[in-house]
Structure formats: structure tokens, C-alpha cells
Design goal:
CATH class of the largest domain: Alpha Beta
Strand order of the largest sheet: 5-4-6-8-7
Helix content: 40-55%
Number of domains: 2
Number of strands: 8
Shape: globular
Order of helices and strands: EHEHHEHHEHHEHHEHEEH
Largest sheet: 5 strands, mixed
Structural class: alpha/beta
Number of helices: 11
């Protein structure tokens, strides 16, 4: 079994969810009353958020490389980012660190492929929605990702940064996000929704697997399952 390291704190609430999911997923498979070895490195959310806003991606990559190396020195043999937005520099970071990292976008793409879907909405922060890392990966598999319109992108991003990352989950914000989904279902012909922000399942409802017959792809749960598989599979 590999010791897994989490780059957490981006944001704090989803890091807690990841920890619980890793424990539960591991114990579901092992069934021997043991627990996994997990190391959490909680980083400065505000610093990374500011750098992403300023599009200083080189600096974001530098910071994440340093923090992954810190995990390795602490004993981690496998790592991952407990957030979607950090994956904007995933490939660069992976090239510069020694331990393997588990990608949230790759794990999600594999899950969507299993369902045979070809057109989905992508929701998350502006950093995630407008970055190429999801779009390019899915395009290689013949899958189209549709974004909300510019006004809706602004709305979701502002709510995400101003509320969700500060542990504020309001019913009216939930209804606003689901309203975007309804509009996209009507106008864009989407077959499902990728919750490309690890706080989105918290506000939507962790037990909500679909909305008006459109399935949700909870990237937190998908990613956690992929991490457990790698952890138990010897990397």
C-alpha cells in the first residue's frame, strides 16, 4: 500500500471530504479493519487564488512543486491536488516532481467514457471552466464540454470564490446554479453535468446524483476512487 499525500486547503471543506472518502474507499476494499497512510499538506488558498486571478501560472506551478516535494519528504509515495483549479498546471508539476500524481480530469474523463456520453456541461471556477486542461483531454475522446454563457460564468465564479470557498452554502446560490443547468439543458442539449469544483457537490447535495434526469459527475468522488485504486494497486 502506498502512502498518499494530499495538497489540501484549496479549499478546506473539500479537503475534509477527500479525507473521509479516502478512508471509506480504502476500508470498503480492504475489509481488514486497517486504515490507509495519508499525509495532508494544507497550503495557502489565498495566495494561489490571487496568482490564478493574475494568471501567474509559472508561480502557481513553482509553489505546487515545492509543496509536493514537501509531501515526498514527509513520506508520501503518491500525491494529488484536492481541487480542480490547481490542475491548470498539473502537467508541468508532474514533470518536475518525483512521485506520481493522480489527475482529477483524467479520472473524470474515464468515468464519462464509461457512460458513453458525448456532450456535457462543465461547471467550476472561471480558472477551471476557461482553462484547456479539461477541454483538450475530453476532445481527444470525442467528447464536447459546453460552458455556461459569460454572465453565468461570472455568477458561478463569484459565488464560488466569495461563498463556497469560505464555507458559505446558501439555498439561493444552489437554486441559481441549478438554474444555469436548466438553461443549458434547454439551449445546449447537454447529456450530463461535470461538477468541476470540489465544493459544488457540497452545495448541490452529496446525495444528488442527477437533476431533471441529467446525471452529475462528482469530480471529488471520482478522483478519490481513482486515488484509492492507485494507492492499493502499488501506484
Amino acid at each position: 500500500m502506498a502512502t498518499v499525500g494530499i495538497i489540501g486547503g484549496i479549499g478546506p471543506e473539500s479537503t475534509i471530504d477527500y479525507y473521509r472518502l479516502l478512508i471509506a474507499g480504502y476500508r470498503e476494499q480492504k475489509k481488514d479493519d486497517t486504515y490507509p497512510h495519508i499525509i495532508i499538506n494544507s497550503v495557502n488558498l489565498q495566495e494561489l487564488r490571487d496568482l490564478l486571478t493574475e494568471k501567474k501560472l509559472d508561480r502557481v506551478a513553482d509553489i505546487l512543486v515545492d509543496e509536493v516535494n514537501r509531501l515526498e519528504r514527509a513520506g508520501a509515495q503518491l500525491g494529488f491536488f484536492a481541487a480542480n483549479s490547481a490542475h491548470v498546471v498539473f502537467e508541468e508539476v508532474q514533470q518536475r516532481v518525483s512521485i506520481p500524481l493522480v489527475s482529477i480530469s483524467e479520472a473524470t474523463c474515464e468515468e464519462v467514457k464509461k457512460k458513453g456520453m458525448k456532450k456535457l456541461a462543465l461547471l467550476g471556477t472561471r480558472f477551471t471552466m476557461e482553462a484547456p486542461f479539461y477541454h483538450n483531454l475530453f476532445a481527444k475522446e470525442g467528447i464536447t464540454l459546453v460552458l455556461p454563457n459569460p454572465k453565468e460564468i461570472d455568477y458561478i465564479h463569484q459565488k464560488y470564490i466569495g461563498e463556497l470557498l469560505n464555507n458559505i452554502f446558501l439555498p439561493e446560490t444552489r437554486e441559481g446554479i441549478l438554474g444555469v443547468v436548466d438553461r443549458m439543458a434547454k439551449d445546449d442539449g447537454i447529456e450530463g453535468i461535470i461538477l468541476g469544483g470540489t465544493e459544488l457537490p457540497i452545495i448541490i447535495g452529496k446525495d444528488m446524483t442527477s437533476h431533471n434526469d441529467l446525471p452529475f459527475f462528482d469530480t471529488t468522488q471520482i478522483h478519490a476512487r481513482a486515488v484509492v485504486s492507485r494507492m492499493l494497486g502499488g501506484l
